[in-house]
Automatic annotation (TrEMBL), chain A:
Residues 298-548 form the Histidine kinase domain. Residues 132-150 have a biased composition (Polar residues). Residues 550-680 form the CheW-like domain. Keywords: ATP-binding, Chemotaxis, Kinase, Nucleotide-binding, Phosphoprotein, Transferase, Two-component regulatory system. Its EC number is 2.7.13.3. It comes from Sediminibacillus dalangtanensis. This is Chemotaxis protein CheA.
From TrEMBL, chain B:
This is Chemotaxis protein CheW. The lineage of its organism: Bacteria, Bacillati, Bacillota, Bacilli, Bacillales. PANTHER family: CHEMOTAXIS PROTEIN CHEW, CHEMOTAXIS SENSOR HISTIDINE KINASE-RELATED. It comes from Sediminibacillus dalangtanensis. Pfam families: CheW (PF01584). It comes from the Bacteria. InterPro entries: CheW, CheW-like_dom_sf, CheW-lke_dom. Residues 8-148 form the CheW-like domain.
Amino acid sequence: METNEYLEVFIDESKEHIQSLNDHLLELEKNPSDLTMVNEIFRSAHTLKGMSATMGYQDLADLTHKMENVLDAVRNQQLMVTTAILDVVFEAVDQLEEMVLDIASGGEGRKDVVRLVEQLNAIERGEALSEDGSNTAAPISESDQQSPSNLASTLDEFEMTVLRESNDQGYQNLELHITLREDCLLKAARVFMVFEILEQSGEVIKSAPTVQDLEEEKFEQSFTVLLVTKEKAEEIEKKVMKVSEIESVKVQKFSIEQRPSQSDTSADTTKATEEKGATAIAEAPVKQEKDTAKKAPVSNKTIRVNIDRLDALMNLFEELVIDRGRLEQIADSLKHIELQETVERMTRISGDLQNIILNMRMVPIDQVFNRFPRMVRQLAKDLGKQINLEIEGAETELDRTVIDEIGDPLVHLIRNALDHGIELPDVREQKGKPREGSLKLNAYHSGNHVFIEISDDGAGINREKVINKAVSNGVITNDQAENLTEKQVYQLIMESGFSTADKISDVSGRGVGLDVVKNTIESLGGNITIDSAFEKGSVFSIQLPLTLSIISVMLVEIKEEKYAVPLSSIIETAVIKKSNIMSAHNKKVIDFRGKVVPLIDLQDVFEVPGEKLDDEYCSVVIIRKGEKMAGLIVDTFIGQQEVVLKSLGNYLTDVFAISGATILGDGQVALIIDSNSLIV
Amino acid sequence: MPQDNKQDIKAIIFQLNDEEFAISVQQVSGIERMQHITRVPQTASFVKGVINLRGVVTPIIDLRKRFGLDAAEFTDSTRMIIVYMDEMEVGLIVDAAYDVIDIPEEAVEPAPEVVGAVDVDYIEGVAKLEDRLLILLNLNNVLTDEEVRALKTVEG
């Protein structure tokens, strides 16, 4: 079957379901008695199973199926939720994720999960022995297997619950009897298309024959599907009929009461709930129509857009911004009032458009944060520590490009905090701290920046230890060590080749240090600072720009060449008298507001051809990097401008003091100066 | 393109000094007239700079410099051949680019052992075509730093 076009959707949705599995499992671990959580988990697992079976990923479907069985047992209270069980389920989710990732990277999603399946089976079996007979659902469904054509009779307990509860939540249950035309060639493909449509409208609970059998064309001309939906029966019927080679679609309301033997054999309690369910069904249609009228538009307010398309849109818009710049220049030079007014209007509109496009690319940082609870749980287990993770500001939005890059550094910092920061429970107790350590992740906006803080209440950074290590590694000398401020000492641990861990553990010591974190963050145009109190804990604070693609710059001219200096690193511009330039250690310096600031002649640095200007005055851009400052000597200031940041391409990857390029209004390329690398 | 002979290499022919060179069309994404080139400081000497190629900043290599030939004035026939490989898009300045031809595989011979004084590995082979002699370029080695480093060691 040709499923390629559905593959992306499948992968996206699978990832979502896996995330939801992880989230809800974590919740469940905190409240083992919360059965609504189990239902959520079950629903995700069930959908995942259905999807993967439809797409032909058998291993994925099988493993999900096994997991579902265990969850079913939990749901039916045949099984108590324990850490041991959850560990296995978590591992299963991990495996599922790996399979999905494999599929995403073009693989088959195959994986050897025999051991895991055995474990899942064991959990399920061990359970069945101990609670022998007390459960009514199992024997019933077994006996009903005799009449497989009747959909209702094959429903398991979970499916029953979904059907029963659907009415309370404004859904209705429909039974669809679909017949394919006799000359239908690709039966499986038609089935797939039908399921696609149905899954858009609601949730497929059950089908006869099973999805697997349908997939393998193990059926004649017709099949039956049980659907929970908010849409009207006629609507569904119309939609399904749009699939070609469909002979007929019969849609009828499905009532659980159709189950023949159920009412006699089941326990009184079940009967009661079912009766309640039945009355609900009777009331449903009236309520239903109102609901659909009101709710339908709301549910469809978002669409999933491929990030490539957004990137393409962004690129086109960048072109527009460049042309806008060109138009502005032309309008200025022509001094044509009407043209100028039109260009102004265009500038305003495109400014708004720019905001919209940028906002479209904004993604909540939750996408990165959401994998941390799971990671922290596992790490805490591995390290024998007790850790409580708190996340704040997960809704804070960041540009997609930043989101993609920030994950790894954060993972590293969290590992670091867990491994080196937070102490073992016994040690914490001795220090008079609660046995459970706390790790906080906090994200928030401030100005044009996003801040992310990772704080722990662990041991903090030992100043002496850091200094000793730095001296022995030759990073600093003994004399320097004495004059360092606390902050400067903490910054040392982000120097390359620095690790304060006495022994290399499984968690850290993978050959990557905090220097990599620092480099990644700086390459994104952000910075990272560390604050710490010994025995109290540490705070790693990351500052990042909201977006990476459009920045404000100051355009300057050196001879014939134009360069752009990012506004974020400029303190101010100044015109100074040549006679005010002093010399210190053979370096030109100026006195700038009482501070001695070294001067850098850009014409020398960039080897710009041409005679040096011999003027009485020279133009200087004062830039800063942290506490340090420097003055860049240029010929002329052109002005401030918003530019689109472009890379120099893969060929020129590492050009000194140049961080990228931009295209100016006249179509020419101007280089963007990386002022960080000019200040040593 | 003749279907019966799949071994043909369709190539763009360009001129440098008095020699004719060939690059497979599959590696060429366009041929551009000369335009303003923004110099990029502190890069290899043969990196002429970058241009704005329809919104994409594209590096330009002066092929004469790259091959150690004498510099020449740009003329009306000077062209930039935009090549694309290994996710790198680079423009090559050549004296002229004028032809697209099919080179039969049997016409291609390995590069002569010695070309000039330096053993240059950016030459893939030589094709004899009636009265013409075409030098087939191995773009990989034209673009990567391997050769640059080799050149540097030769220059001492």
